Amino acid sequence: MPSVRPLRPDLVLALLAALAFSSLGTTGAWAQETPAPQRDRPDSLTVMTYNVLYATPDTGTVRAIEAVDPDVVALQEISEPRLRHIADELDYYFHHSDEHEANEEDTGLLSRYPISRPTRYGALLYLTVDDPIRIANVHLSPYPYEPYALRDDEMTPQEAVAQARKTRSPEIKPVLDALAKSVQEDVPTFLMGDFNEPSHLDWTPAAAEAGLHLGLEVPWPTSRAVTERGFRDAFRVAHPDEVKRPGYTWTTLTEDPDEVHDRIDFIYVAGASVSVETAYTVGLRDASPTDRSVSGYPSDHRSVVTTVSLAPSPSDP
C-alpha cells in the first residue's frame, strides 16, 4: 500500500505534537495528506461506528452517514477502495488500517478533522494544534459466537465466558495496552467498533428477570476488560436502563424467530473532558425499534452514534 504523503512545512508543529502523544507507531495503510488543524476547539463531537456489511451498495452507506453527519466514523467490513470512494462522496479525510490482532484489514476511519497521525489501531486526530484525540477502531472475531451456543444449549454461561475470553481477549488486550498512555494522560479517547460479543452491562440480573437475553445473566469478558481500563460505554451512559433500552445492533434481519438480538457494536469513551450527551442507533424501521431510520439502510448491523461535549482544554485561554 502507498504510505502517507509528505506533509507541508506548516504542518511540522502538528506532527511534532502528534509524535509526542503517539505510542502506537506508524502504519503502512493509506491516509491522506494532512492539512493544518483548525484554530477553534469544538465544544462537541459526534462519532459513529458502522459495520457496513461486505458488498453492500455505497449509495445506502453514504445515505446512512449523511443522515447522521458525524465528525468521525469508524467503519468495519470496509475495503480501502470503498473507503476512499465514500470519503470522496462525503468530503471526509480517511485512513484504512492494516491487518492487526483486532481486525482483518477491513477497518477504516472517516474524519472531518485532519488525520495527523495514523496508528496501528486507528489514528490520532487534532481538533487544534494543541488538542489531540485518540480514535481506535476494532472488528473482533465473530466466531465462535457464544449467544447462539447459549440459545442452542451448547454452552453454559460459564463456558460462554471462558470461550469469549479465549477468543477475544488476545485481540482486545493489545489495543487497550496501546491506548493506556492516552487514557492515563487524559487525552480524549474513543474505542469503537464491532466487538462481536455482548456486554456485561446488558446481560444483567434485571434483564434476565425481564426475559431478555435468553433469561441469562452473563458477565461478558471483553466489555468488562474495556470498562476496567477506564472507558465508559457511551450508549449505557446515555441509557442506563438496559431493560427499557436494550439498544440492539445485531441484527437488522428479523425474519428468523430464533435469532438472538443483541448489542455488539459499541462506542467507548475515556477522558475527564468528555461527557456523553446523546447516543442512539441507526438502521431500518423494523420490529425491533431503531432510534433513527434511514431508507434503504443496507447493513445487517445497526450503527451507533454518540455526541459528546468537550470541556475546554488546559491550554485554552
TrEMBL record:
Keywords: Endonuclease, Hydrolase, Nuclease, Signal
Signal sequence range: 1-31
Pfam family, one: Exo_endo_phos
InterPro entries (UniProt xref): Endo/exonu/phosph_ase_sf, Endo/exonuclease/phosphatase
Keyword Signal in annotation: yes
GO molecular function: endonuclease activity
Domain Endonuclease/exonuclease/phosphatase: start-end pairs: 48-301
Name of this chain's protein: Endonuclease/exonuclease/phosphatase family
